[in-house]
Request: fold
Amino acid sequence: MNTTFERSANSTDEWYTPKEIIDALGEFDLDPCAPVVPLYKTASVMYNKNDDGLKQEWKGRVWLNPPYSRPLIECFVKRMAEHGNGIALLFNRCDSKMFQDVIFEKATAMKFLRNRIRFFRPDGTRGDSPGCGSILIAFGENNAEILKNCDIAGKYVRSIRMTKKMNKEEFLSKRYAIDLKLKELNGEKEQLEKEYIESNQVFPVGSKVCITVPAHERNNESILVPEAKKLAYIADYEIDDNGEVVPSLRQLDYNGGMSAIPLFVNLKKAIIELV
Reply:
């Protein structure tokens, strides 16, 4: 932590976050700036200055209270912005280049803390009130929600990023790429349906069949509909809404051939036999 903000004669880069702040923000997977001798656990994995957290792999949800000496603070904050999953605790210096160029561009949300934090020294004693307020910065939607709902007093603010205007050429190029992909997927879909239908045909297309609808009661009415038979041709096959392969039927013409007139039959009740 940058000691120029600390009203104390003791100058050190090792200042520890009060445990109640960590607890209010939930469990973290990684703390890349942990103390050499921690007062308590801040994350499942903790790297100290001897491990060089900047050289380590960052995984999961990160807690970041970086060393405030330069250029370390900028390096850690940029790494956090690139990682995009975690919460950082910084002094409220919204006019600084780091805030203007990195945090405001990459952060998902922020909470300007109501009270100034008295951080802990390595020996466990608490420092004086710093000369600057603190801010919690969330990267990622999940962390933004946690920051919004936690009981740490402060003003929660969502980041507002200006959306870059898309030009006509970019739009047409992206749309063309999507159209090509859709055409490819439609071709694959048609081929899949064709193979499915061909492997589930009962009778060949063009077959003359007899459709028998057994005697049944009409739609919950006490009216018995007698058995009915009808000759038809199988003009094609299709896939119904339930994924079943069903024949597309045509009525006979005056000469006994296939007409263009469809024959609609409740195939769930019908028996189809080859003539």
DSSP finds five helices and 14 strands in the chain. The longest strand covers residues 228-239. The two ends are 90 Å apart (CA to CA). The CA atoms of residues 98 and 119 lie 22 Å apart.
